[in-house]
Design brief:
373 residues; alpha/beta; TIM Barrel; four-stranded parallel β-sheet; 15 helices; 15% strand; metal-binding; zinc; hydrolase; Metal_Hydrolase
Length: 373
C-alpha cells in the first residue's frame, strides 16, 4: 500500500487516499506525538526517554504497543504524557497534531485527551485546556497557510479508574464555547464501568452536552450496555466487541444469516456510531475472539449489516499509522473502493459533535472532494 513517497493509493484506480477529504473522530492527543518532539521536550525538562534517536523511538512505541493487551498498550502513554506537563509542551504537541491531521487530508477532527493527566508540574485543569486550545488554533492557522482547510474540536476525557468524572464534565461544559465539543471516558475498561461516573453523565445530560464513551474494546457487551444506559452515549469509542451480540446462524456462498441481540439491534437501529480503529483493535487484542489479522476484524460484518461504522486511528504513534493508512489496510483486507471510503466519511460526518448546519457543510465538502478524485 505504501509507495516510495509514503503515499497511499487505492488499488486499481491509483487514487490517492491521502488527498481524499476525511473525518477523524477517535484520535488521542497523547497518542499522536512525533518521536522527535518527545525527545526535544524530554530534554528540555530533564526526562529520560528510551532512546534519543527518533526512528528508534518510533519503533519502540510500535513494538511496546503491539502486545495484545490494552493494559500493556496503555503503559506507553507514561512516556508521552510525561512531556505534556507544561504549557509549552501542550501547545507544541497540539499544534503539530493538527498539522499532521491536515497533511493527511483531514478536514474535521476531534482530538480527545484527559486534562487530569497533565497537572504534574503545577498547571490546573483550565490552564491545560487553554494551552491545548492555543496549540490547536495555531495548528489550524498553519494548515490554512498551506492551502488546506481544517476544523478541530476537543473531546475532554475523564479517566475511568479515577473519581474526577463530574469535575472533568464540568470542565468540559465550562469550555464548550472555547473549543470543547464533547466528553469521553477512557482508560482501563474492564472493572471500571461507565456507571461509576453516573453523576457526570447526569450532569452532562442536563447540559445537553454530547458524550462518547470508550466501550466494547477491553470489555464486552455489558460494557456497551453501560455506556448507552449510564452514559447516554451518542457514539461508542471502538465498540468493536458489539459483534459479540451478533449471532451468525448460517452462511452460504452469497449471504450470511444473522440474529442481532438487543444491544446490537439498538445500536444499529438508532445509528449510534462505532469509532472503530482497525490497527489498534489488533494491537490491544480487542478482536481476539475473531482472529489476529485484519481480515478477521468484524468491521466488514458490521458494515454489511448496516451499522454506522467509522474509521479511526486511535493512536497514530503507537500504531505507526494515519487515517489514510487505516483506509488502505481495510481496502486491502476487504476490497473496499472509493464509494465505501466516502460512506465511512459520511458516517463520521453524521456522528460529529457539531451543529446540523456545520455537518451539512462537511457532508457537501466530502461529496465534492470524492467527486473530484
Amino acid at each position: 500500500m505504501n509507495t516510495s513517497s509514503n503515499e497511499h493509493l487505492l488499488p486499481g484506480g491509483g487514487v490517492s487516499i491521502d488527498a481524499l477529504p476525511k473525518i477523524s473522530l477517535h484520535d488521542h492527543l497523547d497518542g499522536g506525538l512525533r518521536p522527535q518532539t518527545i525527545i526535544e521536550l524530554a530534554d528540555a525538562i530533564g526526562i529520560d526517554v528510551p532512546t534519543t534517536d527518533a526512528a528508534q523511538l518510533g519503533a519502540w512505541f510500535a513494538e511496546q504497543a503491539n502486545s495484545g493487551s490494552l493494559v500493556d498498550y496503555l503503559k506507553t502513554f507514561d512516556v508521552t504524557t510525561s512531556v505534556m506537563q507544561t504549557t509549552e509542551g501542550l501547545e507544541r504537541v497540539a499544534r503539530e497534531f493538527v498539522q499532521d491531521l491536515g497533511t493527511d487530508g483531514v478536514i474535521y477532527g476531534e482530538v480527545r485527551w484527559a486534562p487530569e493527566q497533565h497537572l504534574g508540574r503545577g498547571l490546573n485543569l483550565d490552564e491545560v485546556v487553554e494551552a491545548v486550545q492555543r496549540g490547536i488554533d495555531a495548528g489550524i492557522d498553519d494548515v490554512y497557510s498551506s492551502g488546506r482547510e481544517i476544523r478541530v474540536g476537543q473531546l475532554v476525557t475523564a479517566m475511568r479508574h479515577a473519581d474526577r468524572g463530574l469535575e472533568i464534565a464540568e470542565l468540559a461544559v465550562r469550555h464548550r464555547e472555547r473549543g470543547v465539543v464533547g466528553f469521553d471516558i477512557a482508560g482501563a475498561e474492564l472493572g471500571f464501568p461507565a456507571g461509576n461516573h453516573r453523576a457526570a453523565f447526569d450532569y452532562l445530560a442536563k447540559e445537553f452536552f454530547p458524550v462518547t464513551v470508550h466501550a466494547g474494546e477491553a470489555d464486552g457487551v455489558e460494557s456497551i450496555r453501560g455506556a448507552l444506559f449510564d452514559g447516554r452515549a451518542l457514539r461508542l469509542g471502538h465498540g468493536v466487541r458489539l459483534a459479540e451480540d451478533v449471532t451468525i446462524e448460517r452462511e452460504d456462498d452469497d449471504n450470511s444469516y444473522v440474529t442481532l441481540g438487543p444491544v446490537a439491534r439498538w445500536v444499529r437501529d438508532r445509528q449510534i456510531a462505532l469509532e472503530l480503529s482497525p490497527s489498534s483493535n489488533l494491537q490491544t487484542g480487542a478482536i481476539a475472539a475473531w482472529g489476529d489479522e485484519m481480515i478477521d476484524h468484524p468491521f466488514d460484518l458490521l458494515y454489511q449489516l448496516g451499522f454506522r461504522v467509522t474509521v479511526n486511528t486511535d493512536n497514530r504513534l503507537m500504531s505507526n499509522t494515519s487515517l489514510s493508512n487505516e483506509l488502505g489496510l481495510l481496502s486491502d483486507a476487504f476490497g473496499y473502493d472509493l464509494d465505501d471510503f466516502e460512506q465511512f466519511q459520511q458516517n463520521a460526518v453524521a456522528a460529529a459533535f457539531l451543529p446540523l448546519e456545520d455537518r451539512e457543510e462537511l457532508a457537501e465538502a466530502i461529496s465534492d472532494g470524492f467527486a473530484e478524485a
